[in-house]
Automatic annotation (TrEMBL):
Residues spanning the signal sequence: 1-22
Pfam families to which the protein is assigned, alphabetical: FAD_oxidored
Keyword terms, alphabetized: 4Fe-4S, Iron, Iron-sulfur, Metal-binding, Oxidoreductase, Signal
GO molecular function, one term: 4 iron, 4 sulfur cluster binding
Name the UniProt record assigns to this protein: FAD dependent oxidoreductase
Amino acid sequence: MIASARFLVPTFLLSLAASAFAASPAPKPVSADLVVYGGTASGVMTAYSAAKQGLHVVLLEPTRHLGGMVTGGLSATDYAYFPIIGGYTREFYKEAATTYGKGDLDHPTDFLSEPKVGEAIFNRWLKEAKVDVRFGERIKEHGGVEMKGKQVTAFVTEDGTRWEGKIFADCSYEGDAMAEAHVSYVIGREGEEVYNESLAGVRPETPKHQFLWKISPYDDAHKLLPYVDPGPLAKGGSGDKKVQAYNFRLILTNDPANKMPWTKPAGYDAKQFALLTRYVQSYKEHTGKDPVLATVTNPVCFDHAKCDFNNNGPFSTDFIGKSWTYPDASFADREAIWKAHMKYTQDFFYFLATDPSVPQSLRDDTNKWGRAKDEFTDSDGWPRQLYIREGRRMTGMYVMHQADLQTDRTKPDSIAMGSYNSDSHNIQRVAMPDGSVFNEGDVQVAVQPYEISFRAILPKQEQVTNLLVPVCLSASHVAYSSVRMEPQYMMIGQAAGVTAALAIQGNTPVQQVSVDKLQTILRKDGTILHLDQQAHRAQSRIHPQP
């Protein structure tokens, strides 16, 4: 069942209640076969598939909403070669498409839907599968995972509740449970020599989302403008601890009856967008076109006059350089980073809509759009989920790397398939010696459909034997930039749920689950595992993406 959210105690009341809490008995432990942490779309699929295999499943979600980015603004599904999307993930998108009178998933736009539609499906599925969903449950920052030897025995949430299980899954974007279980992981970019990857490390040439003409990053006093790093740019191919940019994916509408106006955010300062001003003011001179909202954002539109607005161009919704510390940050520091991203987003759109320095064409077009009143209704139309494109990445039994996407695309232990291009957003914006500004880190390289190894979601057996990691999985920065797409997270989650059931049935570590049994169940439930299987489906049922 889906339990109601726990109300968080206001900070100013914590000290008053401290003695009462100290005197209270510890909360009663809760037991299950599988305990899933993180109600992302992957977490939903992990819990759902395990429940369909007969397990008693508890799903812990720190917020009050299911679906992560799938229901948090990313409506423009990163489908790529969509014939490889199978299993329960395909059923989810089919059910969403049916809402709009579609359902065959014969066309790429069939994979686009409103956040509220996806969230309703996820809630209903878990209710029907009798998954015990607990909202408002975040694991303790320290001591959030209890272990006995190499086995996790319980997740511990902030009020002290122990969630005991036989198998555990960390399906969060942050990988906090994984880290608390002392599983090895990395943050940032490997150097090209680590896995012999030509796309690894610092990218000295990044033609996409780039300043295509010279713009100075300095003001009249030769001080750097906001949101520009002084550099210098490190050597091409060298590794670092930086992660690609995060943003919020806004759902905007041009329906006058449903849109909200842009209002001035608290603490707004237009000066932060001095570099953006220079870009949009010089845009027509260099392109011959008047700038509009699509010049600085990427709208993908769907039913009911709504669009998912993503990053586009050299200065957009990506808050470049402000995500680096997030993966390993404290909860308090993450909250500050989260709020800074939201403020940047609110300021960005208000600036475009109102500032007199913005060309009239861009201001007028921005004001045609507004947040949809019927989405994110408990957060004033602003998305609830920050797009954490990359955080911690486990170093597990097998590390996926560039070759797995390009040359070694088949895997005997495949649990799902990927097909989206290697897609890393920019990582830093740097002042260059020639007086220009340079966005660095963007990678956009096409791939062919490839198979995802079961071992990529498994920690090393010498570290922990009953934990699965479908989201912060084991991959290099280059490989993760493709496999990180939500349909892949969801399909991998389905495999994780089945793995949990097989591990319990066989009383074995997750690393020793029979791949043959796992693949048999996944095929039965419609998962596409291999290149020849997806080719047959494409020829017999589905037209590939043009």
